[in-house]
Design brief:
By secondary structure, the chain is mainly alpha-helical. 72% of the residues lie in helices and 0% in strands.
């Protein structure tokens, strides 16, 4: 959610900082060759969830998870750490990573606003699992449909150019043999 400049300045001053300029943060989109490895998002959220369940704040838990990361997403991870070190919130840092869809972000941000991060992280993990299962089912259904279509076309082509000429030829031989 966009905030007014005056609110941002007041927030920075309340944290003991001196605002020099304000500019909107741009979320970097990952190029296709740098997409998150399978399971990266889930492992990161699970690490944050475990820390939150043990009593750590979500922001600190995210910072620990990002600092212990194996640099799978070095640029966006560093962006998120920069947001956290500058005093940004959990939602801002997760958005800076840029690997979560809008519905997952909405779940996480609502948990941050309501102070129920434990439930929000669990709901986000469950949502991501269901979404992944739905995507797998969709890809499987579309793949099977293409598989059926290809075999239908191959059957028609095989009948037309292989089986029918062969039957025609054998019918001619059979007719000649009977005479």
């Amino acid at each position: 959610a966009a905030r007014r400049d005056i609110d941002i300045i007041a927030d920075v001053r309340a944290r003991g900082g001196v605002p020099l300029s304000i500019k909107p943060m741009q979320v970097r989109k990952l190029p296709p060759w740098m997409k998150a490895r399978a399971g990266y998002r889930e492992r990161m959220l699970q690490a944050v969830l475990f820390s939150v369940q043990s009593g750590m704040s979500a922001t600190r838990a995210l910072q620990r998870a990002l600092e212990s990361d194996d640099a799978a997403l070095l640029g966006p991870t560093q962006d998120a750490l920069g947001v956290l070190r500058a005093g940004g919130g959990f939602g801002d840092a997760v958005r800076a990573i840029g690997v979560f869809d809008e519905s997952t972000m909405a779940i996480l941000e609502s948990g941050e606003r309501t102070g129920r991060m434990n439930e929000a992280l669990q709901a986000a993990l469950e949502h991501m699992g269901k979404r992944a299962a739905g995507t797998r089912a969709m890809v499987g259904a579309v793949g099977w449909t293409f598989f059926d279509l290809i075999f239908a076309v191959l059957t028609i082509v095989g009948l037309r150019y292989q089986l029918l000429p062969m039957l025609s030829e054998q019918a001619g031989k059979s007719a000649n043999a009977q005479e």
